[in-house]
Amino acid sequence: MSGGWNTIESDAGVFTSLVENLGASNLQFEELLTLEPSELSSLQPLYGVIFLFKYPTDTPYTSSETPLDGTFDHDAASRIFFAAQTIQNACATQALLSVVLNKTDEVDIGEKLGEFREFTIELPPEFRGEALSNSDLIRETHNSFARSSPFADETAPKGGESEDVFHFIAYSAINGKLYELDGLQPAPISHGECTMENFPEKVVDVLQRRIARYEATEIRFNLLAMCRDLRVRAREFGDMELLEREERKRKDWLFENALRRHNFVGFAGEVLKGVVESKMKDGKVDEWVAESLERRKKAEQARRAGQDVEMSG
C-alpha cells in the first residue's frame, strides 16, 4: 500500500468516524455555523476546536520568533502532545490528535492511541511528527475517509497557477492555558490563561482576530468542535427527541462516508451498457446518436453566441 496521505474533508461525520475508528470512545464533532460563544457552550464538555483556513502564500504566515497573535511556549512542547507536521495532507488528522491526545484525563482514547501517545510523548516534536506520519494505523484510517478519485488528468499543464492551499489547526484548553496547536509552527502558541469553562469565550476571541486579518471577501473558513457524544447526554437526561435526532445523524454520516469511499465508475459503465443494449434492441441506436450530436451542436452554438455577446459588450 502507498505510504502517502490523501486529503480529507472538514466534515463532522468524517472526523467523528475517524476518531472512533482510531479507537477513542464517546466523542463527536459538530460543525459550527457561527462564531458565538453560546453555540460552543451548548456543547460542553468541549475538548477543543479544529479550524480550517486558507493558508496565506503571498504574505508571511508568522515569524519564526514571534507569532502574529499569542506567544510561543517552547517549554510546553515537552509537557503536552505537540507534533511537528512532517508530511503533506496529514494536517486534518494531526489537528484531531492534537486535541484528543491532550485530553486523556477526560476522554477514553483507546488502547492503540494510548500506546502511540506513550511511545511518542517523550520524543521531541519533530520525532513525534515522524512517528505520526509513519503510523500505519493512523495513515490507513485517515486515508479511508478520502474521496475516491478514479481519474487522474495526466494531460493537465504543469507549472500553471497553483490551487488555494488550506490548513487545519487545533485550539484546546490544556493545563490552564489556551493553546493553538499547529504542526507547521515551531512550538505551541499560548493565548493566555484558560479553563474548559471559559474556553468558548477565549477561543472565539482568538478566532475573530485571526479571521479579521483576511480580506472581507474571504469566507472559506470551517470550524469543528470536539465534544462528548451527544447521545450520552441524551441518555443521561432522558431526552428521547435529542437521542433520536443524534441516532438519525449517525446513520446519515455512515451513508455519506460510504459514498465517499465508493468508486462509481463501474456502476456508471454498467448503466451506460444497459442503455446502449436497450437502444440496440429497439433498433434506435443511430437515432439516439444523432439526437445526442444535435444537442451537443446546439449547446456549442449557444456557448459561442454567449461569448460573442460578452466580447461585444
From TrEMBL:
Its EC number is 3.4.19.12. Residues 4-228 form the UCH catalytic domain. It catalyses: Thiol-dependent hydrolysis of ester, thioester, amide, peptide and isopeptide bonds formed by the C-terminal Gly of ubiquitin (a 76-residue protein attached to proteins as an intracellular targeting signal). GO terms for molecular function: cysteine-type deubiquitinase activity. The record marks 182 as: Important for enzyme activity. The active site is at residues 91, 167. The record marks 85 as: Transition state stabilizer. GO terms for cellular component: cytoplasm. It holds the Pfam family UCH_C. CDD domains: Peptidase_C12_UCH37_BAP1. The keyword Hydrolase applies. One of its GO terms (biological process) is ubiquitin-dependent protein catabolic process. Belongs to the peptidase C12 family. This is Ubiquitin carboxyl-terminal hydrolase. It comes from Emericellopsis atlantica.
